[in-house]
Amino acid sequence: MTTAGVRTRERDLFLVANSTDELGGVTAWTHQMARLFRSAGHRVHVIGVHRADLKMAVPEEPDYPVTALYPAHPLTARPMRGRRRFSVPARRREARRIAAKKAAVAELDAILGAARPGSVVIVTQVWPMEWLREIDTSHLMVIGMSHESFAYSRACHRYHWVKRHYPHVDHWLALTQEDADIWTAEGMDNVGFMPNALAHLPAVPSPRTAKTVCSIGRLADQKGVDMLLDTWARVAPHRPDWELHLYGAGTDEPELRRQCAELGLDGSVRWRGRTDDVPAALAASSVFVQSSRGEGFPLALMEAMASAVPCAAFDCAPGVREIIRDGEDGLLAPLGDIDALADRLLRLTGNPRLRDALGTRARTNVQRFSEQRVLDMWQDLFALLER
Q: Could you give the CA distance from residue 353 to residue 127 in angstroms, rounded to a whole number?
């Protein structure tokens, strides 16, 4: 069979994630890729460790099976040491945890055990490897992924999870070549990279006429909305006719609203809540801002550029600077430098010619991450690993 023939043949693909319905970029990516793989003729099954509390609205009814191994977040193992060894409630809790995990592993084993030889398991986040490594996957090709930068993984427990679990998979993928090189230098010899795909190219770009800056993302520490509010406090006095629209939901919202009020920004900040219509939110905006402390390969940033909305962002990850070419199709600021991010927003809000130039180039340049191009990269990877 030719290489092209191998690339295009149908496969059974299993996408295994933390959750199948949690509000966030990885869930959006999982269902985007499931639909994309289905359109290419593959048979797809999406599996999540658990159902989520803060749910994402899936744009359309999936035409592939979706399975959650737990109805809610599973219990976390706690060492049975000290007084806990003699605590009846603690022992009962541990027994429930073990029984639930045994049932989840059995369900996952039944699904993957019935897969045909040569089927592919794509582990979208490293946590599900805790369950996957308890079953026999010798008849499967296992591809692991990390949807965050090396630096963000290194700062938390997921660094150790990657080092523990991913040496055992057939291949694993960072989001950029830069991060893949860093992981290789860390001693990982089976790592490559795969960018996220642009989900949607609006037929009509934003007119960039509304005096609106928008941010889209969870109201959580990683997204740095607290830093964005501090940034806006520096911008708002110079742009009294502009508003900052915050799209998203999350546990930090009450604290962020208090911060907004303390900064005297209630007159220029609009809390829009979560949105299931990102293109409409971007069409009504003239500038997009991303203030994250850490990212992988942010979909919201690509969507803004596809809508021809010029972006200002913290240079918080290789994926961000892979998407934005600073000064050509967007503006970057050093991570955590609020004054610098304010400067970028002042430049974009104060100069319509700059907005138009950057927005137009952004819409063109971001198409290098089109779904078809990324799908071709996946097909090439499958063929390569089968040789």
A: 46
The pLDDT value recorded for residue 374 is 97
Greatest Cα-to-Cα distance within the chain, rounded to the nearest angstrom = 71
Nearest to 50 by CA among 76, 74, 28: 74
Give CA–CA dist 205/254, Å, rounded. Answer: 34
What is d(CA 221, CA 256) in angstroms, rounded to the nearest whole number? Answer: 10
DSSP 114: T
CA distance 34 to 86: 47
Q: d(Cα 303, Cα 300) in Å, to the nearest integer?
A: 5
130 within 8 A of 139, measured Cβ to Cβ? no
Exposed/middle/buried for 77, CB within 10 Å: 0-12, 13-18, 19+? exposed
DSSP 211-244: -EEEEES-SSGGGTHHHHHHHHHHHGGG-TT-EE
Q: How far apart are CA 353 and CA 302, in angstroms?
A: 21
Identify the sign of the CA torsion 33, 35, 40, 43.
Answer: positive
pLDDT at 54: 63
pLDDT lower than 70: segments of the chain: 1-8, 54-59
Place of tokens 């399975």: 67
Residue 35 CA to residue 42 CA, distance in Å, equals 10
Only one residue has tokens 């071709």, namely 376
Q: Rounded to a whole number, what is the distance in angstroms from the first to the last CA of the chain?
A: 11
